[in-house]
């Protein structure tokens, strides 16, 4: 099925599933057309600077406040904030791809396994990286579960299996190679076709935005036009749902006799978005030296310190390497920022072996890392003809705060216990 989308990051959209629903020239008329309720959803403080300000008006069959009381919902593998991680030794860590279980029913909520955490959701800073292992839909095939995250925005990076994401504001189809950005507080359900694996960044801090482009100019990297928002859509026949809400690091459940997918029309600039990484305009060196990976930033969540991100979403897409007299893979480095990486497909040039699609790695603040022995050997002697890196997509969640792995992630069965060996062959070649 081909869906219709609205185009443009941060645009002020107006969309109606029933024509004539949106009020004209005002937001909250005495009576909304078709007997609907008007409801305002804000994503930033009312008084946030205009360039950052995000809010949307929804016109719906019943306001979100019509819901039963919430009781705790057990999901012990979903962790929140630094306090729920383990203070592990400052070693580089790598995980093999974790298989999607077949014996246990896992939807997008029950399938969350938190890998690393930092910050504090209550203080609205930091992030978590999750791996989500899914073998059940949430909203089709008899299931009727909806999720709302009050702790943060969710960036979904599907690795295996396409996702159909129903949201209060409409439906997004998101396949591996694409990503979805779901705002804090907006209800959604994730449906899958089969065993699926998704990397997720749960961002407790400022909403992701496009990075500044500086001397790059007015075009390049992720262009605003390529972000796609859903058109308004609502359920024709209301039926009961289970609402699961995350707030204060705890999951809660309530039932409601209709789904939150009852928004007939909406307008505003706070909405779910999808983005196809194939549209990323990759910029690199056309002279010499390997540039800093900040040139690959798709989205950034700023912290209170200019230039120092709460979390950046960075991709390593297919691209040409042409730099002369240059060691072309990433250099060896100790980075003040902390780096969580995943591989959607193919090979990553710094780690041709061992870093496998569906796998993950963690190089925390100032933990030394870089190309493995094999990559160093090849790149030090390769003929420097133009080379196209093809069929590859790695990504990084890079944060100013150290990430603590969870107890789940530190299980020896999941970790690549031999990771450090990939550098053991880097011999001393010094010739005085
Ligand atoms: O460590 C990594 O593989 C990520 C990375 C890539 C790069 O091109 C430069 C720096 C960096 O941290
Ligand atoms: Fe790095």
Automatic annotation (TrEMBL):
Decide whether keyword Nucleotide-binding is in the record. Answer: no
Q: What SUPFAM superfamilies does this protein's entry cite?
A: RmlC-like cupins
Q: Which Pfam families match?
A: HgmA_C, HgmA_N
Keyword set, alphabetical order: Dioxygenase, Iron, Metal-binding, Oxidoreductase, Phenylalanine catabolism, Tyrosine catabolism
Describe the location of the Homogentisate 1,2-dioxygenase C-terminal domain by residue ranges.
Answer: 279-430
Binding of Fe cation, residues? 333, 339, 369
**Protein family membership:** Belongs to the homogentisate dioxygenase family.
Return the protein name. Homogentisate 1,2-dioxygenase
Q: Which organism does this sequence originate in?
A: Rubrivivax rivuli
């Amino acid at each position: 099925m081909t869906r219709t989308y609205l185009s443009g990051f941060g645009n002020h959209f107006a969309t109606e599933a029933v024509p004539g629903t949106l009020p004209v020239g005002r937001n909250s008329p005495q009576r909304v057309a078709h007997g609907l309720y008007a409801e305002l959803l804000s994503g930033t403080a009312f008084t946030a600077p205009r360039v950052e300000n995000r809010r949307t008006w929804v016109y719906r069959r019943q306001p979100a406040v019509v819901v039963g009381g919430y009781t705790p919902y057990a999901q012990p593998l979903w962790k929140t904030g630094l306090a729920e991680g383990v203070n592990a030794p400052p070693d580089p860590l790598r995980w093999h791809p974790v298989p999607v279980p077949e014996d246990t029913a896992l939807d997008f909520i029950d399938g969350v396994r938190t890998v690393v955490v930092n910050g504090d959701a209550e203080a609205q800073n930091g992030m978590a990286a999750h791996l989500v292992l899914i073998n059940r839909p949430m909203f089709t095939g008899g299931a009727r579960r909806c999720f709302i995250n009050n702790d943060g925005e969710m960036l979904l990076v599907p690795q295996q299996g396409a996702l159909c994401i129903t949201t209060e504001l409409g439906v997004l189809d998101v396949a591996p190679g694409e990503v979805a950005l779901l705002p804090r507080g907006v209800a959604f359900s994730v449906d899958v076709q089969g065993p699926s694996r998704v990397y997720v960044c749960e961002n407790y801090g400022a909403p992701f935005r496009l990075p500044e482009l500086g001397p790059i100019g007015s075009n390049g990297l992720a262009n605003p036009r390529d972000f796609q928002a859903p058109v308004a859509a609502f359920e024709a026949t209301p039926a009961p749902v289970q609402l699961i809400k995350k707030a204060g690091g705890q999951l809660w459940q309530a039932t409601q006799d209709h789904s939150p997918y009852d928004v007939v029309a909406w307008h505003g600039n706070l909405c779910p978005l999808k983005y196809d990484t194939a549209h990323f305009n990759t910029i690199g060196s056309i002279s010499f030296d390997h540039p800093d990976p900040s040139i690959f930033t798709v989205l950034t969540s700023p912290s209170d310190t200019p230039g120092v991100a709460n979390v950046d979403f960075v991709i390593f897409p297919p691209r040409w390497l042409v730099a002369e007299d240059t060691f072309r893979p990433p250099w060896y480095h100790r980075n003040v920022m902390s780096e969580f990486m995943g591989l959607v497909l193919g090979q990553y040039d710094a780690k041709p072996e061992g870093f496998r699609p569906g796998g993950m790695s963690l190089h925390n603040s100032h933990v030394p890392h870089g190309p493995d022995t094999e990559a160093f050997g090849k790149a030090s002697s390769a003929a420097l003809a133009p080379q196209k890196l093809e069929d590859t997509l790695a990504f990084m969640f890079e944060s100013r705060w150290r990430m603590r792995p969870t107890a789940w992630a530190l299980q020896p069965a999941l970790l690549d216990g031999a990771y450090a060996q990939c550098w053991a062959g880097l011999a001393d070649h010094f010739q005085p």
